[in-house]
Amino acid sequence: MSFDFSTEGTGFRYRSQQAVRVGLPGVPDPWGAARTFSMSSSPTETGHLTVTCRISDTPFKQALSHLRPGETAQVIGPLGEFLLDLTRPSVFLAGGIGVTPFRGMMRYASDTGDAGERRLLYSARVPEDLVFRDELDVFVRTHPTYRVGYTVTRPGESSRPWEGRVGRIDEEWIREIAKGLHRPKYYIAGLPEMVEEIVGRLTGPMGILSEDIDYEVFRGF
Ligand SMILES: Cc1cc2nc3c(=O)[nH]c(=O)nc-3n(C[C@H](O)[C@H](O)[C@H](O)COP(=O)(O)OP(=O)(O)OC[C@H]3O[C@@H](n4cnc5c(N)ncnc54)[C@H](O)[C@@H]3O)c2cc1C
């Protein structure tokens, strides 16, 4: 689910692609009445910010999913330094809901007339978890230097047909998408295990310098 919060009159500004902490004071959640979310919106989308999350059965997520238009939440931020560098080619590697900052980055790049090389590899369990797919496909159609590849790790758990790639984001696929790019910056976002695995591949067999890698770990879940 995505949630738009109005920023009109608040002076709230952020950079692509920071995060916020969303609080619902009073919600009795044993893990606390707030969660951190990357913004899935771009700073170019003025007047509001958007966060997108998986709805689980925690009291916080249940309360969030039942917010009605016009109700309020506490939003603290912007937070973090997971920032897009438009001066270099980018390789974005997303696991599941970890795609949220990359939707924001691609939208930001697109809105600012960027013509740099932007490549996204996006993995999800089942096809229906590939959120933002329609919009990402539009970015690719309208920008010859943007590319997106999708993969699904457990197509058998879905009733939707899937004829695309199956399996995790592996070294061979990263090499293929990064081919021809001059010293790209690698950005990774997803659950801790996914980020750790990919950073290991990049810095190990692929020999990418850690200064060319940035990541956002979605702790929790
Ligand atoms: C920088 C950053 C950016 C992030 N961006 C996003 C984002 O864009 N979108 C997004 O969805 N998430 C994002 N996250 C993760 C987010 O903060 C939450 O941790 C996540 O969404 C899970 O929240 P939750 O309420 O579902 O479960 P959690 O708050 O993680 O649950 C708390 C703990 O309780 C356990 N638990 C949950 N339910 C039950 C239950 N019923 N019974 C027993 N135990 C249970 C969980 O396993 C976990 O250990 C981000 C995190 C960080 C740090």
Choose one word for the global shape.
globular
> What is the CATH third-level topology name of the largest domain?
Rossmann fold
How is the largest sheet built, in terms of strand order? Answer: 9-8-7-6-10-11
Tally of DSSP helical segments: 5
- CATH hierarchy: architecture of the largest domain: 3-Layer(aba) Sandwich
Structural class, by secondary structure, is alpha/beta
- CATH uppermost class of the largest domain: Alpha Beta
Proportion of residues in extended strands: 25-35%
Look at the structure and name the CATH superfamily of the largest domain: Nucleotide-binding domain of ferredoxin-NADP reductase (FNR) module
What does this structure look like?
This protein is of the alpha/beta class. The chain has two domains: 78 residues, Translation factors (Elongation Factor Tu (Ef-tu), domain 3, Beta Barrel), CATH 2.40.30; 128 residues, 3-Layer(aba) Sandwich (Rossmann fold). It contains five helices and eleven strands; from the N terminus they run ββββαββαβαββαβαβ. The chain has a six-stranded parallel sheet with strand order 9-8-7-6-10-11, sandwiched between helices. The chain has a three-stranded antiparallel sheet with strand order 3-2-5, with no helix packed on it. The longest helix is centred in the middle third of the chain and has 12 residues. The mean pLDDT is 97. The structure holds flavin-adenine dinucleotide. Flavin-adenine dinucleotide binds next to β3, β4 and α1.
